[in-house]
Amino acid sequence: MGLHPQYLSSFWKTQYLLLRMDGPLPYHKRHYIAIMALLKTGENSWSLAELVQALVLLTHYHSLASFVFGCGINPEEDQDGGHGCRPPSPHSDSSPASDDSVGGSGVRGGLCLAGVGGKDAMQEVEVLMERMKLLQESQLEEEGVTQEEMATRFELEKTESLLVAPSDTAYHSLQSNVLCFVEDPEFGYKDFTRRGEQAPPTFRAQDYTWEDHGYSLINRLYPDVGQLLDEKFQVVYNLTYNTIAMHCGVDTSMLRRAIWNYVHCVFGIRYDDYNYGEVNQLLERSLKIYIKTVACYPEKTTKQMYTQFWRHFKHSEKVHINLLLLEARMQAALLYALRAVTRYMT
């Protein structure tokens, strides 16, 4: 995260408040919740304030697991010491992107080129740039698209996401030093619908938004953390270095929005005003597989998945993508959890 200091500052403030500052739960219970990431009812029921703090802790650490595994901070059974999911060093005959374009020493690169891969990498960059340009030009023509058509595009993308799953051969069993905390090793993400089901459920974002509903509920029951969470979401959603490869002054908002909305789509969340046709145009299949694996099955993430998408991007740029996945997953989980709390209250 240090590759993106603006976001890291916001992240640390949130985590410090969750674990160290005043709150309805004592410190030892907060840490226990962070370790177990399971919520079960017991003899002593919690207050709504305690429940909301527990939910924030759970979603924080669930999404943090996606970030950790997504960045390759996990050992693979067939490799001593594991791997770091870093792409190979540039070949001597490569021409890496100018340091100036990625922030000095190149440590803070945003969505831009690593300078590896030769002509194929350059061609991929140009294809992506051309698709972004065409989509931006066609936005005016899309203004007349009906809500029915927009809904159909979402349903197609959502249905396709059910077919995007990591291979069973990619599964790595939990380490023995973790199993002592696990009651049900099979517990984990389940697709929100069965394959072939005619009407998969959809969470319409407009019916329960973070801005209008979730944010205010958290602020009411767990003051201050709502503000920090909102700041963290905004920082990562708007984080950009305005570069792609050798191109400077690029508006990458369309690409970032496609990644964010695809994560929410995987969890069945739909934005009525978003054209999901952009997802298929901007996100190649290998990237979709990576996104769903990191968001839903982080422990199944492999080095191969990491290196197969956008092979010409730098490690810092892939960390940038993982920051988007972390926060999009956390917001999606909070929307479901807080909507359930709201329904219980009313």
Which SSEs are present, and which pair or pack?
Layout lengths: L4 H16 L6 H10 L11 H23 L47 H21 L8 H15 L14 H4 L23 E2 L5 H12 L3 H14 L4 E2 L2 E2 L4 H14 L2 E2 L6 H6 L2 H12 L6 H6 L6 H31 L1
Parallel strand pairs: 1-4
Antiparallel strand pairs: 2-3
Helix pairs in contact: 1-8, 2-3, 3-11, 3-13, 7-8, 7-13, 8-13, 9-11, 9-13
Top keywords for this entry?
2% strand, 53% helix, two-stranded parallel sheet, 4 strands, 346 residues, mainly alpha, two-stranded antiparallel sheet
State the gist of this model.
The protein has 346 residues and is mainly α. The protein is 53% helix and 2% strand. The chain has 13 helices and four strands.
Structural summary, described in words:
- A hairpin with a 2-residue loop joins β2 and β3.
- The protein is globular.
- About 10% of the residues have low confidence.
- The strands form 2 sheets. Strands 1-4 form a two-stranded parallel sheet. A two-stranded antiparallel ribbon has the order 2-3.
- The chain contains 13 helices and 4 strands.
- It has one domain.
- It is an all-alpha fold and 346 residues long.
Overall geometry: globular
> What structural class is derived from the secondary structure elements?
mainly alpha
> Which H/E pattern describes the elements?
HHHHHHEHHEEHEHHHH
Q: How many E-type strands?
A: 4
Q: Count of helical segments?
A: 13
Helix content estimate: 40-55%
| Low-pLDDT ranges | 88-117, 168-172
Number of domains: 1
Across the major sheet, the strand order is 1-4
Radius of gyration, CA atoms, in whole angstroms: 21 Å
Q: Quick check: average pLDDT?
A: 78
Spatial gap, N to C terminus: 39 Å
Range of strand content: under 5%
